[in-house]
Amino acid sequence: MRVFSRANALHLGLIALLALLFFLLPAYHTGNLARIMVLAVFAMGYNLLFGYTGLLSLGHALFFSAGMYGLGLTMHLGGASPAPAFLAGLIVALIVSGIVGFLALRTTGVAFMIVTLMFAQAGYLTVLYFGSYTRGDEGFVIQQARRSLLGIDLSDDTNRYFAALILFAAALLITGAIVRSGFGRTLVAIRENEQRATMLGYDVHRLKLIAVILSGVLSGASGAAYALLFGYAGATFATVQYSIFPLLWVLLGGAGTTIGPLIGAIFMFYLIDYASGLTNAYLLLVGVVLVALTLFAPQGIVGTIRARWIRWLP
Amino acid sequence: MSLLFTRNLTKAYAGVTANEDINFDLPKGQTRALIGPNGAGKSTFVGMVSGRIPATAGTITFGGEDISALPAHQRIAKGIAYTFQITSVFGGLSVAENVALAARRSLGAAAPAKVAEVLDQVGLTDRADQTARDLSYGHQRILEIGMGLAQNPRLFILDEPTQGLAEAEIDAFKALIRGLDPETTILLIEHNMSVVMDLAEAITVLDQGRILAEGTSEDVRANRAVQAAYLGTEHA
Amino acid sequence: MDFGPHLILAILEGAVTAATLALTAMGLSIVFGVMRVVNVAHGEFYMLGAVFAWWIATIIGNHPALGFVAALLVAPLVVGAMAAAADRLILHRIDYDPERTIVATIGLLYIIQQGTLMSFGPDARPVQPPFNSRIALPWPEWTDGVFAWAFPWGFGTTTYKLFIIAAAAAILVALWLLMTRTKAGLIMRATQQDAEMARAFGIPVTRVYALVFGLGAGLAAMGAVLIVPVQQAHYLMGGDPLLLSFIVVIIGGLGSLPGTVIAALLIGMSDGIISVFFSPTLAKIIATLAVAMVLVFRPQGLLGKKN
After folding, report:
1. Are the beta carbons of A207 and A186 closer than 8 angstroms?
2. Is the dihedral of CA A219, A222, A227, A232 positive or negative?
3. How many domains does chain B have?
4. In angstroms, what separates the C-alpha of A243 from chain B's closest C-alpha?
């Protein structure tokens, strides 16, 4: 009989805690938390590529917005219902990440960062170019009446929160399983010493491509869910800012840890929330946090906890 | 029967030919030492065999199959283990995980048993949880050899495995290699003549990119050309 | 205006863009060439050049020529000093690790940009050029079989714009002389080749890095000071130059001055010319994808060497 592992206990415990928090927190915070959980899925997707495989992409906004517009446009223009639209979002993200992976993985290091940045930038400009369909920076709203799944109205606060939680839980358990599997450990090996991994017989290029696609699909799922649950799609989500944010969340929370992305997303959300109250230049705080992280805490919150005290953290 | 053979294997850089027309045969089950002065092209040769370095010309056949066009990871997957001249392990991971990664590719779920076996074989069981980069250099080298063993290789290529090791560690290394399954074919680049004489069933001497001599250790010792090329380099 | 004059005008405007772009991109190229780091905040140093130019011109008041000269001399020095400080305080401490440097410079980007927003404000503010007269340009025309020179309305340029081109060219020549003919340039190139060896020869590599980083930022600031009388200073004006500089450096090959200049001419001109035929957005899409493809298929750039 398999021992109930500590990692599983941690993940399920966290999910249970998040469910409980809905009943304990006021509506303002549960609304925030719903948003944070969806964005945490984006961060988890990014973490898979950056934290575990060691590839720093500066273009993940492309995958997020691929999912967002995949769902958004099929609902807004095609009149589709949420379920097939969500699937469309995932498929678009899958195709886009496959193409980007195929091309970008021919480069490494700094070149990889620039290539992914360029692809994402081209994606943003394309959204603007087809503004007659996408409404560009202004974006479009997906009406409340259309956003109901299996008869459940997703714009209602309770339903929205638990839909976000279900998505987050699925993503957490899936990434948890991936990183503890042989495949996941090989990704870490690639991060640690790619040449050695090759000389142990691993097809590093193929494995990296799979990692890019998994990362892209998770990010796309987050984008699609964001459009569905919050009823809006806009070009802002395709800008470079949304490529920087997942990097920031993952770095702050702890790259290469399963719960780090959520922690980083929570922290950053409330930090910006607080700062916006003081000044409209709240992104200054983002800058300061980034610099502080690289100087003093490159392992992030959960990463530092794992290194110093709790070694078994997944 | 040759497990590995090369024909006309050549590596030319602009202006410099590191390996010229190497015709090399390695019978199955043999322990062969590849020796030669510095710059003779030994590491280049095994680099080409393993696929790390692209050959300029020539063919490589392993287990009856032409592997000349295969990328490195596919050649390794066919049963070649390779240790680097400068030790290359997963520094940030534990000793056990290093060996597990080597074993997992071919053994999958059966890997943990193999890991325990290998750690015991190389004497690193009590260091299993240590982070690899915290090990002494000698132990890191032993770990790398362990990783090779975990792959159950048909051909084991070792590039200067005893370099930087202390006397006792070298003895342990010799015992380890002697204790391996006699079916294992070993290709060993070495400068340490005592290791060569103790372990090698046959020796190939490279000099300036060409095979200078080949044969048993007595043949090679007596060979005048080898003596000329190697004068004064014999050391313990 | 007919197509012909329209195209020539696009080329002239493109030359102005290319001039300042060459300076800005050269700054990025030197930093990457010598220090092997990508400075994502490069565009913000450019912006600071424009902002300081406005500030200095405003302090000096009613003498636009004096204000401009002061700005051209002082702003790059101040921006360069700030950059050198950032190098010492941040980049040096993280040991110029490529990944951490990118993240740190992204942070620096936000700090500089938002800090400017807080102090300078969100508005675009103009700076007076030191001189500015219109030059009408002639265009050949045939009327009833008779050849004559006409001056189509709107077809012309200004003396200041021509000055930008001349000034940029002069600065680039001076930079080239610095890199190839002086001891300072030799030290920079030695450090670029092999930092360890340079250190062994007694070159204070840490100080060289700080100076090079400062020089890179200063060049960008110079480009901005030259263009600000034409464009206006705005806290977000660093974004496009950053992207374009990247494109230029990648296509022209890193650390190569002739490569950077040629690529800047290419990009500066094409940006203007393509916009004549296609929408600016489509032009940018093509340019962005072209850069990505160059990196994917020819990582050493068009003129760089394979290493």
Report:
1. yes
2. negative
3. 1
4. 28
Contacts of B167 (CB under 8 A, 6+ apart): none
Q: Are C11 and C274 spatial neighbours (Cβ–Cβ below 8 Å)?
A: no
Name every chain A residue with its beta carbon within 8 A of the beta carbon of C115. Answer: 281, 284
Which of A114, A127, A249, A278 should we substitute to test contact with C (largest number of C Cβ atoms within 10 Å)?
A114
Percent over 70 (pLDDT), chain B:
97
Is residue B117 a part of any domain in this protein? yes
Output the tens digit of pLDDT for each of chain C's 307 residues: 577 777 788 888 888 889 999 999 999 988 988 888 889 999 999 999 999 999 998 888 777 788 888 899 999 999 999 999 999 999 999 988 887 888 899 999 999 999 999 898 899 998 888 888 888 777 777 777 777 777 777 777 788 888 899 999 999 999 989 888 888 888 888 887 787 888 888 888 888 899 999 999 999 999 999 999 988 899 999 988 988 888 888 778 766 778 888 888 888 887 777 766 777 788 888 888 988 898 898 876 655 555 4
- Residue B172's pLDDT band, with cuts at 50, 70 and 90, is confident
Residue B97 with chain A: CB contacts under 8 Å: 185
- Whole-angstrom distance, CA of residue C212 vs CA of residue B29: 59
- In terms of Cα–Cα distance, which of A218, A186, A2 is closest to A97? A218
Cβ contact A185–B101 (<8 Å): yes
Comparing CB atoms, the residue among B91, B93, B101 nearest residue A200 is B101
Domain ranges of chain A: 6-239
ipTM attached to this prediction:
0.90
CB pairs under 8 A between A and C: 111
Instruction: Quote the DSSP letter at residue A218.
Output: H
Cβ-proximal residues to A139 (8 Å cutoff; 6+ apart), any chain = A232, A233, A234, A235, A236
Q: Is A294 an interface residue toward C (CB < 8 Å)?
A: yes
In this prediction, residue B236 carries a pLDDT of 39
In sequence order, which residues have a C-beta less than 8 Å from that of residue A222 and are 6 or more positions away? Answer: A38, A39, A41, A42, A45, A64, A67, A167, A171
Regarding beta strands B155-159 and B185-189, do their DSSP bridges make them parallel or antiparallel, or are they unpaired?
A: parallel
- β-bridge partners, B6: B24, B60
What is the Cα–Cα distance from C70 to C65, expressed in whole angstroms?
Answer: 9
Structure tokens at A52: 């575990």
Name the residue with tokens 């025309």.
C141
CB atoms within 10 A of CB B106: 17
B contacts of A202 (beta carbons < 8 Å): 73, 105
DSSP assigned state of A200: T
Chain B hits for A204, CB-CB cut-off 8 Å, are: 73
pTM here is 0.89
Two structure tokens written together for B176: 């380890």
Helix/strand/coil (H/E/C) assignment for every residue in chain B: CEEEEEEEEEEEECCEEEEEEEEEEEECCCEEEEECCCCCCHHHHHHHHHCCCCCCEEEEEECCEECCCCCHHHHHHCCEEEECCCCCCCCCCEHHHHHHHHHHHHHHHHHHHHHHHHHHHHCCHHHCCCEHHHCCHHHHHHHHHHHHHHCCCCEEEEECCCCCCCHHHHHHHHHHHHCCCCCCEEEEECCCHHHHHHHCCEEEEEECCEEEEEECHHHHHHCHHHHHHHCCCCCC
Q: Show the low-confidence residues of chain A (pLDDT under 70).
A: 1-4
Gap from C181 CA to chain A (nearest CA, Å):
31
The amino acid occupying position C238 is: G
Distance CA C185, CA C174 (A): 11
Residues in chain A with CB shorter than 8 Å from the CB of C111 are 284, 287-288, 291
d(CA A226, CA A249) in angstroms, rounded, equals: 17
Mutate: best of A2, A200, A202, partner B, most B CBs <10 A: A200
Cβ–Cβ gap B89/A195 under 8 Å? no
pLDDT tens-digit readout, A130-143: 999 999 999 999 88
